[in-house]
Design goal:
The chain contains eleven helices and twelve strands. It has helices at about 5-20, 25-40, 50-60, 85-105, 120-130, 180-190, 210-215, 225-235, 275-290, 300-315, 320-330, and strands at about 1-5, 70, 75-80, 105-110, 135-140, 160-165, 170-175, 200, 205, 215, 260-270, 315.
Length: about 350
């Protein structure tokens, strides 16, 4: 089954509106969902969307009320998300960081009490579009064991960095071999995960996503991934008044408890260091040097290719996801078939 980008946007917005989500929040959630699918991160797009519906019904994602800025200076802020949509809080936090960076040169905004926000790179892209460098990190509930350990203590702890330039330059990656969402997607589809991705609860290598979810995902790059993940855990936990390590809950979608992870959004205005034109010219000079060095690529090239392909051919919906979406739509008196292209 297939759905066009336009129809997916309409579907997500229709579902959220029927549930009573405010338009400004529904718009952000919708665009973040579309962004994930267009870039090929389907584990964080429409495939992850039902998680948020469960969160609303369980009372752990709030659709009323407003977030609170609990601390603020010229260059930093700390936001209590009040358990609102993670996408909405992340959008507001990044836009605030961008505004402050335009005034002071560099800014950091932390959030706590905010839900899962989808794909991390959506928010560093906001910085790119506003001619600032964007750096986004967050922690998640435990899914990764410290190097040499067998117990999951660290999150998959993604990091995204976006550079404003003529070329789209962006990286968005988990500090684990795989994002948890990819395991959840493989489990839904009945597929195996690649070897050397995870170990089961007994410490044995596994390609079974369910066993991997019960066990632990491996850090990417051995000690380097582990060290980076640990640093992110601290910056997105104790630094921003959020939970850390085994205390983190609510990011995997079971919604037994409120989501208590933390996020950090950093914006840097290059024009406060050098002229913006000079910065972009030198970045492009560097990009050209890399491209001319051989059969290589720039981080972001693959996403640009996927976006073009997916905009043209539409987005695939597997049978299991269709059944899940149909149940959601039936409960809301929405005709899912009207959005789907066979």
């Amino acid at each position: 089954m297939n759905i066009s980008v336009t129809k997916e946007r309409e579907l997500v917005k229709t579902i959220l509106t029927k549930l009573g989500v405010k338009e400004n929040q529904a718009d952000v959630v919708t665009e973040a969902t579309i962004d994930s699918d267009l870039k090929g991160f389907t584990s964080h797009g429409l495939g992850r969307f039902p998680q948020y519906i469960r969160g609303i019904k369980a009372g752990h994602i709030q659709i009323d009320g407003e977030y609170e800025i609990v601390k603020e200076t010229d260059s930093i802020a700390l936001i209590d998300g009040k358990s609102l949509f993670g996408q909405y809080i992340a959008y507001e936090a990044m836009m605030l960081a961008i505004k402050k960076a335009k005034e002071t040169g560099i800014a950091a905004v932390g959030t706590f009490n905010a839900n899962h926000f989808g794909v991390t790179g959506y928010y560093s892209d906001l910085a790119i579009r506003n001619d600032v460098i964007g750096i986004v990190t967050c922690n998640t509930e435990p899914g990764v064991a410290p190097l040499g350990g067998k117990k999951a203590i660290l999150g998959t702890n993604p990091v995204a960095i976006g550079i404003p330039s003529e070329t789209y330059i962006a990286v968005d990656m988990a500090t684990s071999v795989s994002a948890r969402g990819k395991l959840l997607e493989a489990k839904r589809k009945g597929e195996e995960i690649p070897p050397n991705t995870a170990i089961d609860k007994d410490g044995n290598p596994t390609t079974d996503p369910e066993a991997a979810l019960e066990g632990t995902i491996l850090p990417f790059g051995g000690v380097k991934g582990y060290a980076l993940s640990l640093m992110i855990e601290i910056m997105c936990g104790p630094l921003v008044n959020a939970a850390f390590g085994t205390k983190v809950t609510g990011t995997a979608g079971d919604y037994k408890e409120n989501c208590n992870k933390g996020d950090l959004f950093i914006a840097i205005d290059p024009s406060k260091f050098v002229s913006m034109d000079a910065f972009k010219e030198q970045v492009e000079e560097f990009v050209t040097e890399i491209r001319e060095s051989g059969n290589t690529f720039i981080p972001g090239d693959l996403e640009v290719k996927r976006i073009a392909e997916n905009e043209e051919k539409g987005l695939e919906i597997d049978e299991k996801l269709y059944e899940i979406l149909k149940t959601i739509c039936d409960d809301l008196d929405i005709d899912l078939c009207s959005f789907i292209t066979e």
